[in-house]
Structure formats: structure tokens, C-alpha cells
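Figure 2 data, in text form.
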Amino acid sequence: FALVAVGLVVRSVALTSINVLWPLYLASRYGWDATSYSYLLFGMSLVGVGCMGSYPVLEAMLGRAGGQAGRVHTATVCTMIAAAASLVAFYDGPGTHLFLAGNIGLGLVMRTALDLLEPGLKSIGSFYVTQLGQAFGFMGLLAGVGEQIGNIGATWLYEIRPELPFQVVGGMLVVSAGLLVVLGVRARGEEHVELEHISQEEEDEDVEPLLSALSSVHLDESSIRSRVPRAMSQ
């Protein structure tokens, strides 16, 4: 659960950073005004709604292994996509229309991946706890901690250099993806052990009727000795 907690905090930091700093970045870098960003914000809202509806389909496609390992694999892919988009979208290049289009496109990809990551991480985290109410409350607390880190830390980094907070967030997402890979390996190992245990129980269930049938057919030694000569004489 600790690995999932790190992922939730990092995801919240990344989401807060792009929500707060992206309009400032577009205004300072490309001269966008509030009206221009409002159109982008509307598109981001539509993307968020679409992500919530398409997550089960995405999990079915990426999490083909099924079970906990499949959910971890889906979250890992989303985290890697968000990390790559954050590192590439906010590259310190010339302020041309080509770089603007790339920034908008990859920024939307990053936001989409972060939206898809939230239900996946919460689903993974709920697997390791018994009290779901307490678990979701604690995960909400982790998201709040990430928001505060994003509001304070990302803004401070932005004052140093506008691209710096997005690059730091990208690095944090890379670390989070690595932790999810470790969690995925562990989940696959646990599921493999569980499948072996179930297979062994099924084999035992198949053998028990045969053993009971053999035990019911009991011939003592004297009976066998008396029947062998008769069979030979015939």
C-alpha cells in the first residue's frame, strides 16, 4: 500500500502543477489570454469526462492479465505516458506555432493520463486494505497532501524557470512508474502462488474419491491366496 500511496501523492502533485501553472506558462511563453485558455479548459473538461467513461475499456485492453497485476499494469502505462508528456511538452524551445501545438497536444495527453490514473490507483490501493471507508478517506488525504505540495513547490520552481516544475514532475512520475513496476512483479508472483495453491487443491479433490473407492474394496491376504490357485487351475 505504501507504493500506491507514493503514486497517489505524485499524481496529485502533477495534476495540481498542470492545472495551476499551465495557463501561466501559455500566457508568458505564447501570449495567451484568459479567453484562449478558457477554450482549452473546456477541452480539458471534456477529456476528463471521457476518461472516466473509457477507463474500464482501457483496463480491459491494457490489463489483459486480469486481477491485481492487470490493474497495476494499466496504472504503470498511464504513469509512463504522463511522465513522457510532461518532459517533452514543456521543452525550452522557440515560441513558434509548431511548439505551441506540441505543447497543447502533449499537455492534453498528460492531463488525460493523469485523469485515467486516479481510479486505477484507488482500485489497486483498496486491494490491500480491509476497511474500504478508511482506505478511501486516507487516499483522499494523500491527494490533499499532493495538492499542497504542488501549489507551493511547483510555484516556487516556476519562479526559477517556467519549464522546471514540469520537468521535476516528469521525473517524479518516472520514479512512481518504477515503483509500480515493482508492485506489478510482486502482484504477479502472488497470483502465481495462489493459482498453484488452487490447482493443488483441485488435484487433491480429484484424488480423494479414488482413494476412498480403493479403500472400500478390501481383500485380506488369506482371501487372495485362496483365489489364486482356483484361477490357475481354471
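Caption note: The chain has a mean pLDDT of 76.
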